[in-house]
């Protein structure tokens, strides 16, 4: 279980500008983030010899060709939607620990705002860039069995889980609102956050329009043109680089069963993270009490709540008593989404959660720094509930 | 009733899912049932995940079940659905144990509740396609 424990480190993090309307291709955004991350590590592009490519848009070879990597020793892609970034850390750590590669780049980004079909495709249309088809088993299920009933997007699919949980356990809207309001408060301390300077109160949250019950507007993540990247290397090499290494102490992936259909699950609240969490905690050799902060994939508020339960921070159905504004705020016992998350910083598929966790552990976060942060937890959630968990330490 | 002007997307089918909807056209709700171990399954697949058998029959459901969960869409994510807002994609658990996505007819979104008993009705949306939907049952 401790095969990968502390064998690999995050040594470089970077991002593109976060905008609504980048005017650039998604590959260009990811290359900008990649250069920033490689530079942050104190490395040169040709030092990269492994790439875990993004699940959309471009493949590893695109990056190698642009960055001048002549001997790409390791190239793979994790197809787990928003869980891909965290699970890509696992792939990178495996490659580094086994000696297959030395410095692994993980880029991920998109024109999440301007390439949205409702906006005519934006930069993707202007540049002629086409999204790569995803080899995704969900699409058959959606086309045959969800599409005729108008259930075609994540806010509707995940709402099925949220509605059942909410009605079974009597979770009030205020628990969901606490997560939205907390993310917005943290965004005010983050210069890169899209929602900086736009306050949100619980009253605002409760008064907002419905998107798809039980989700109102502020339960839903942003749409952003943005990319982030991280560089992973071996623990030995990490000690000689620019910043204090951020160790990947525990990492695991998990898939709900079956992964390609939500209604068919024997227990709908057993999600990918339910399988990943015990493995990641065991690998890291830490308990929930040891964790100083959480960066939880927050595409929608209730998805955060389902993940916190699935990781065992509280029992099934008890999230309404567990989550309080005091617990999750900066300075609280368990600060949550210190950068503002997908809800208030930017939607970068949770790669921004990894970047934030690394900066917290390097103690670079200024006004939003978690005091004495030693151990941070990052989750990923994607597709129909795929999950990833990384436990990072300084 | 058949309506040539039906504007909503119809199922994108192939293989087993085409067979599922062929039965719906005849107003029969049928699901795969393993002839090895008797387990019902949906969505349709090649193998029985319980016993490993490739053998199955399309067994007829009694068409009765309960509301398992739902969402109510207030914002159309596809333009075709704009005229139907708000609408509720509901998950129904059939008495045979399988669950499926559907719409209820004659039930307002605010009336939805877990375990509401429902029974299947078929909506002939085009001359070729009949969609299984559900109505409140006693």
Description:
The complex is a heterodimer of chains A (394) and B (138). Chain A is 36% helix and 18% strand. With 394 residues, chain A is of the alpha/beta class. Chain A has a single domain (8-114, 222-393), classed as Thiolase/Chalcone synthase (Peroxisomal Thiolase, Chain A, domain 1), CATH 3.40.47.10. In chain A, helix 2 (60-67) links the parallel strand 2 (50-53) and strand 3 (74-77). A 6-stranded mixed beta sheet of chain B has the order 7-6-4-9-10-8. The longest helix of chain B is centred in the N-terminal third of the chain and has 10 residues, at 16-25. The chains are: A alpha/beta (394), B mainly beta (138). At the A-B interface, helix 5, helix 6 and strand 5 of A face helix 1, strand 4, strand 5 and strand 7 of B.
Summarize the structure.
The complex is a heterodimer of chains A (about 400) and B (about 140). Chain A is built from 15 helices and eleven strands.
Q: C-alpha Rg of chain B, in Å?
A: 16 Å
Helix/strand-derived category of chain A reads: alpha/beta
Beta strand % of chain A: 15-25%
Q: Main sheet of chain B: which strands, in order across?
A: 7-6-4-9-10-8
Write the topology of this structure:
The complex is a heterodimer of chains A (394) and B (138).
Chain A: E1 8-15, H1 26-41, E2 50-53, H2 60-67, E3 74-77, H3 84-97, E4 103-111, H4 122-127, H5 138-146, H6 154-169, H7 173-187, H8 202-207, E5 210-213, E6 215-216, E7 225-234, H9 235-238, E8 246-254, H10 272-284, E9 293-295, H11 301-310, H12 319-322, H13 325-328, H14 341-344, H15 351-362, E10 375-382, E11 386-393
Parallel strand pairs in A: 2-3, 2-4, 9-10
Antiparallel strand pairs in A: 1-7, 1-8, 4-7, 5-6, 8-11, 10-11
Helix pairs in contact in A: 7-11
Chain B: H1 16-25, E1 30-34, E2 40-41, E3 56-60, E4 64-70, E5 72-73, E6 90-94, E7 99-102, E8 104-105, E9 117-124, E10 130-136
Parallel strand pairs in B: 8-10
Antiparallel strand pairs in B: 1-2, 1-3, 4-6, 4-9, 6-7, 9-10
